[in-house]
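Researcher: Quick one. two chains, 1411 residues in total.
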Amino acid sequence: MTQKELHTQRLVKEANETFMSYQTRRHFIRESAMGLGSLALGALLGSSCGSKKAVPTANIFDAANPLASRPPQFAGKAKSVIYLHMAGAPSQLELFDYKPDLMKLDGQDCPQSLLEGKRFAFIRGVPKMLGPQAAFKQHGDSGAWISENLPHLSTVADEVCFLKACTTDQFNHAPAQLMMHTGSARLGRPSIGSWVTYGLGSDNQNLPGFVVLTSGGRFPDAGKSVWGSGFLPSVYQGVQCRSEGDPVLFVSDPKGMSRDLRKASIDAINEMNRIKYQEYKDPEINSRISQYEMAYRMQISVPEVMDISNEPDYIHEMYGTQPGKACFANNVLLARKLVEKGVRFVQLFDWGWDSHGTDANLAIDYGFINKCRQVDRASTALLLDLKQRGLLDETLVVWGGEFGRTPMMENREGKQNPFKGRDHHVEAFTIWMAGGGIKKGFSYGETDEIGYSAISGKVDPFDIQATILNQMGFDHEQFTYQFQGRFFRLTDVHGRVISEIVA
Amino acid sequence: MIVVLAGIITIFTFSTRRKTVDFSADVKPILNKKCISCHGGVKKQGGFSLLFHEEALAVTESGKPSIIPGDPDNSEMIRRLTLHDPEERMPYKADPLTDEEIDILRRWIKQGAEWGEHWAYVPVQAVPVPRSSSFFGLVNRQNAWTKNEIDYFIAEKHRELKLAHAAEADKKTLFRRLSLDLIGMPAKDEWLQQYLEDDTEKGYEALVDSLLASPHFGERWTSMWLDLARYADTKGYEADMSRNIWKYRDWLIKAFNSDKPYDKFLIEQLAGDLLPNPTDAQYIATAFHRNSMTNDEGGTDNEEFRTAAVMDRVNTTWEALMGTTFACVQCHSHPYDPFTFDEYYKFLAFFNNSRDEDTQADYPLLRQFKEPDSAKLQELNTWLEQNAGKNKAKEIYTFLKTWQPSINSLQCDDYINGAQVSSWFAGLRNNGSCRLPGIHLDNKKRLLYRYTTGFDGGAWTIRLDSLQGPVLKKTMLKKTKDWEIAELELDDMKGVHDLYFTYSNPALHNKENTGVLFEWFHFDEPFPGKGKSGYDSAYAAYWQILKAPAETTPIMMESNREQFRTTHTFERGNWLVKGDEVQPVTPQIMNPMPADAPDNRLGLARWLTDKKNPLTARTMVNRLWEQLFGNGITETLEDMGTQGIPPTHKELLDWLSWTFMHEDNWSVKKTLKRLVMSTTYRQASFANEDILEKDPYNRYLTRGPRVRLSAEQVRDQALVISGILSQKMYGPSVMPYQPKGIWLSPWNGADWQQSTGEDQYRRGVYIYWKRTAPYPSMMTFDATGREVCSSRRIRTNTPLQALVTLNDEAYLEAARHFALRMHKEAGKNISDQIKKGYELATYHTISADGLKVLENLYYSSLESYKKDKEAACEMMNNMTTQEAAPEAAALTLVASSILNMDELITKN
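Model:
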């Protein structure tokens, strides 16, 4: 090779490297067989403002194989997350946050000091205080207070870690749900499941990496945006598995097509593509061939994993499933099956927790109790089932709503509601976590004597997100994606890992 | 030869080791990468910043400047870069700069530490075409390859990097490529025949011209623009209710089809309402910025979401039209690009006086009437012009067309026994009251108001300045059927007053009942022309049109002086913490405002489309290039600033931008024609190992583009090939087949009502777009949610895409029709049918191997379907007789497989 040839070769190489060094999404190390770990890690280590660490060089993403399994930034305790979101926001005061003093105030006018300068979704004028509408007892060695509404969960109190001083700054459902799952009250940011899938890819190439299951008859208020991928490539959005119709959109073969014919047709398509590859030598063709093969495998593996009828009777008994129906218990059992198969993030939304007291279903002393019955047994079964399979240590289970409920009885537009109910409340609510390297039988944070405000151990959605990412092996401050000229984080400029609850 | 080579090498070496250091090319990248995260923008460690020239040379906390132009040896900056003590050496706690980097900085300071502007902020200059710039004109063989100016730029880079171009693609490939690129779907078969018969350059050009003139051209380019305009058929946020704004989409189609010059195209979208005597179309164009989201949810603060919409307009204007990510600056000065924090809000001030206030009705709306109301309005206008003067006529005309200017009821406050209902209406109970503050009453003799009440006998009293103040007016409100507009005559009054409304109605027994809801108020002078001939019928016409049913579209309108808002900076981007007041001003780094431009949106639009604006033309040309070639000349369409990817062919980008403005007078069609007429565009897209090594992403155009089709193209192509595409253009958005259960929004009864007839088979651009639940198969193919402006779709390749084209009923239906078409057009022979199908889909003749593959598929499935005729009928959805079903089903499977081939999903 002449000197000139060497020189131009170097120039071309440099020019290509320059592109690689910028933030294009396509360049995630195609030759990922070697050095993947270190390179991917380097790419992940970025921060938005002036960190001393090296600035990230690329968004990790390979369009040809976007779900390839990738290691986290450090060894996380949890391999997967099951997030049980009670959409509508369950009342902490009837479940976990025991406030005997509130009972003494029952029926009295709410003191002005609690109302001044506050904004509520529906409370107007001066509402009455509402005492706890459930009896409480302490459970387990940890002595956790759990109400009679959750008799099953009470039996596993020592597995659970309660966060009793959760707060948020959004008092409407959609923005609060978006805040909880995307770190922003506005549409357009990636959900936590998308972030995790973007960071880790998927362990199971025959199933989506991030699965969403809904129950309660409705989607969460914020719609699909709570599992959207925002500015991350769309491949990282949550794939909704459905109880009715196709378990995953378009996964079923059309009527009149047997598996053999489907196989024959995919083989033919891939054969045609191979012929084309000989002509064009475009690597994208090979990648399409493998995507069609994966689609075929998904057609088998998705319905298989979504079919709970093969589970033994005692499992059905444990969860309280109702095969063939769209219900929370079925979804919880599915979540366990999905996690078992290597799915990274399973997000459940159960709608119907908005206990305003405007009708019987939304009454804190009626509909709410039914909702508790619908979830108590299955949530408990999930912990026991994961445990008996040795999966609880590596699966982080999160249970909670998007905000809490007021210690006052709601008086919509100043009138008394027909049933007992509580309004949206941002200053105190409880969520719980279990497994995945979180302390067992522990409670963190406290509210005041009537459960109105968090007084110690206060955490917000960013802290919760930072903690979930931490358990998955990500430093939330260093886990970024460059978009619109800056590095974005799930937690933006906020968030603290709640180290107090990490085992 | 040796001498020549040696010469070349010398020149090469000479030119790469430029004696003069170029700030933008050599210095700025080092500063951005290694220094600026601590010394610029938000952080100025040691009082030293490298963002602006004056800052870089200024005295730092140490008491002396860090850079002394001409004297690197005494410049603290160089000293600190070369120290050995890790506590002292810069960059702090990071790897030291390389010798080469330090050498560049040293030479830069030595040469005077001149500042330079980033290329994208320097106005576009005329660029010479490198026709024979190759070393002394020696290597001119390439000229046979170059067809137009573009090719010279590409060839120049090829020479420089020792790359080669590819041969021209075959005609059928070119036909498909051109069709998909220019009209977004396969073009008419007749055009293919004409093109194949004419092998001259004219034949190619004729095809290009036909495609550019096709009405489908506008549909295809509108698809692209809708992502930029974040167009959707719903309002977003939780409620995500329907929004009637499809006329904007139709405006775009017409604008692209008529090749509206791009400067006018932008001026009308940004400020059509401020043009003299705006037409309906110019008003509708302004819906561009009414595609921002509106929050209908109870308890939300309208001002918060109005502000969010205004900020979204600022960010969209910069990203979509000027390829700049401006959003960062809302919280702090840009750390890399020369925009300051307050410049964001100065720019925002241009947008802060539009009339929209996050109202549920999406006011202001353009009201378009059917006949005879429309004719009646013209008649009335003529009468007014003659009897009341042009200005008055225009004022009334505008009011009838828009109900503006009016004061939205959400301005009411101080409620007693009343409330703002649904975040927006002023609602009063029996003996309730509220205040409407700050009303200018000079010459206002009439109060028009839109309201509804379910009760007779309500008394509405308006008092001045307090609840006990003098009564301005009292009236009785009768039960209304629906919303109504009514009028009160007012006595002479001067000045600005707060109006206090009270409502009492003894018929209201339930004290919880809301007696009346108000929506808006309009204060006006008396209707003009009293006593003149025709007054009575004109006044009657006025009322008829005011209340007439109308097709409405949200539009931009400017507030009048009485409702003018002042603009403040928001501390750290928080709208609740207001800083200094600012005036509308464009950023300093950019071109100045044109001399006669007003400081409102219209002035802004003129500034943006001024030929001195460095970003507008470059952004659009880069975008057009990306649509055809797969990558932009600057890959980051959304960011041409210092954090974007530098252009591969900067001179070409500038040449195209210059030509776009100065020669082609902002014609998009002419620019596209230049692109597709080039040899560069016409290259075959074959790759090989060598070229994949040298130019893996085809940035240097060493071959033709080969990229996956867009979501819309995948759909449209299947409909064309199967022969079921509806040619219908325009109109409300359609709802083709969508699986059940996609829309399940709480508190929103909206339902996907599947369209019937040809509306099921309309092009993708017409599909109803719900922000919180967009059309699923399009999303799988990387369409965007349209919550905010999105400049670029990332192309992915996933199994879920395969499942769409394999199993979505929409694609199956296409496959069935495609199979029938194959059968119909090719006769009885199976091989002929498959050959025909392959040709219809790809224009090419199937290879012998390929034919064998598809024949095998056909016969094996035929065998299976013959055994199970029921399955065959199901597969055909009972489109054929049971007798014919096995053959049809087998052929349908072949058709579906053809539609799934990589060759179809990809543009070759």
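Chain B is about 40% helix and 10% strand.
Researcher: Thanks, that's what I needed.
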